[in-house]
Amino acid sequence: MAKKSKKQQSGGTPATVALTAAGTPYTLHAYEHDPASPSYGEEAAEALGVSPDRVFKTLVADVDGELAVAVVPVAGSLDLKALAAAVGGKRASMADPVTAERTTGYVRGGISPLGQRKRLRTVVDASAEAHATICVSAGRRGLEVELSPADLASLTSAVLAPIGRR
């Protein structure tokens, strides 16, 4: 049996463990997740009292047979053509949810761009740069992490590109 670190024993997620290990400043926001909520991201924005333009959802897509992560504002949607172009691909479609969960190590609605089981190419929507901080999933439903877009991009080796659509 693998030994858990003190942070993991105290309820940390792989995302918060990765942030702490990197020495990256962040703020954790917890809220009571409602399983009946139709949108995880909009629920998070409302529960935290944060503009949906500053809360970003993490989506996993298949680009030419390889998985990639798209991080876009919950106020909009993902432009699959723009995502494909941002990673040098031709075609993109949403990944199978089971494959996304298995590959990232997170459950749908709690997939974080940070601390994934397998590091995937990541693209963060360029609109993130307009904010001092943004919120992304901290690795489980009802838990968000707030950090600077530059830190998120650095930790995930992300490309910033206009992949969101209003």
Q: Ends: how far apart?
A: 46 Å
Give, in order, the helices and strands.
HHEHEEEHEHEEEHEE
Please report the total strand number as a whole number. Answer: 10
Shape: globular
- Compute the number of helices: 6
Give me the Rg, rounded. 15 Å
For the biggest sheet, the summary is:
5 strands, mixed
**Mean pLDDT metric:** 91
Query: Spans of 5+ residues with little confidence (pLDDT < 50)?
Result: 1-10
Approximate strand percentage = 25-35%
- Give helix % range: 25-40%
Keywords:
single chain; 166 residues; alpha+beta; five-stranded mixed β-sheet; globular; disordered N terminus
Layout of secondary structure:
Blueprint: H1 6-9, H2 14-22, E1 27-30, H3 40-48, E2 56-63, E3 66-73, E4 77-78, H4 80-86, E5 92-94, H5 97-104, E6 121-125, E7 134-140, E8 143-147, H6 149-156, E9 159-161, E10 164-165
Parallel strand pairs: 3-6, 6-9
Antiparallel strand pairs: 1-8, 2-3, 2-5, 4-10, 7-8
